[in-house]
Amino acid sequence: MSFINDDFMLSNDTARELYHGTAGKLPIIDYHCHLSPQQIAQNVRFRDITQLWLVDSGAGDHYKWRAMRGNGVAEEYITGGSHSSWEIFEKWAETVPYLMRNPLYHWTHLELKRVFGIDRILNPGTAREIFEECNARLAEDTFRGQSLIRKFNVEVICTTDDPADDLRWHKMIAENPFGTKVLPAWRPDKAMAIENPGPYALYLEKLGAAAGMEIRSYTDLQDALQRRHDYFAAAGCSLSDHGMETFYAAGYKQSEIDAIFRKALSGGQPTLSEIEKFRSAFLFDQAVMDAQAGWAQQYHIGPLRNNNTRMFDIAGPDIGFDAIHDREMAASGHRFFDRLDSAGKLARTVLYCLNPKDNEVMTAMAGTFNDGTVPGKMQFGSGWWFLDHEYGMRRQMEVLSSLGLLSRFVGMLTDSRSFISYPRHEYFRRILCDLLGADVEQGKLPISEIERIRGMVADISYNNAKNYFRF
User: Fold this and answer.
1) d(CA 83, CA 93)
2) What gap in Å lies between CA 207 and CA 397, rounded to an integer?
3) What is the pTM of this model?
4) What separation in angstroms does the CA of 344 have from each of 225, 245, 297, 418?
5) Tens of pLDDT along 275-296?
């Protein structure tokens, strides 16, 4: 039997019926990813499987890079750029047999099967033929970027975009539709980064130019962001995203925020207390902006970034040297959302944690601020980054089931830079169906409610995201 067969990850009859009868047939809504809008607009043709899988895909695949380093592969084959495509791919193929029980083992073979129709295990003995077969397919027009997206019946993609972005690639896609709606998503992290005054001042010049104004005060900053927020909304954006170590909800006066901003703009280094106050004010004002526009918002909490100084100096950020933080976030998170709720400015919100210790904390936090106006208004999001494997997905759904409403969950996202990560949605749906199917067969859910359970699968796989994000 093939490894990636029809019943892959489905361990019981009910799971198989739920997946093949419902989940497997539904379109994909990828409401958070890091695909390059330029590559989508230009309908990128990938040179070879190495570029698609290991080198490019927007910025490379740091999941695979971490695995290769762990397997003893030298950096010159990862970010060094001095080896041929085949030599780099060969090192990946040497690593794959050591990935058993890592999600990359499953994802690698799912992508080979679903994208290229290759039903063989990747290892040093099969590497050359798989490399050449993939490259031959990538030379075909039906394997360019837009076709790869359509291959997986992707209905909506939300990219991750800075407020200073002119969105010209999104406009080009809208003017030349290919069957998948590609929308920007607002990611204002750089506008909050006063801890690095030099780069921050340069960024504010870029943001001001995009907004058509000069930024000299905190009020100017918010005015510029409002202009860009409106610009994004006109381009179809209805969703924001924030990546942070923790929530920020320190007490502050507006005069303090003005002074902290001027200090950073003039090159002064803010203190830790000043940084926390500024972030608290900035995030509150951004959340108010989202609520007034009717947007939904996402908070990705918990990364500890760029931890290897030597490698950062050599190759820069986002190359696989980030990790899981362990900062406390319960008290500050509740203060932050309570301020918004008290002001009547709490938008639809999805929370993600990177540290599994915070699964229950975040689920309980979300439940504290649901108000009956929108189903799942505040909710705990899917397993993310270091948690988007089978155990992490199951754990996320178990916690959400126990403390919240799994039926209202908006489901999976790729959070990926790769054009062929969409089998992750299949992976998630199979795990979801296996989870629910096992409950039915063990008598934990009534077989008499199988139609409701089918509807639950369809909602989590597709309907909830479409309705929640109002696509």
Assistant:
1) 15
2) 39
3) 0.96
4) 21, 26, 15, 38
5) 999 999 999 999 999 999 999 9
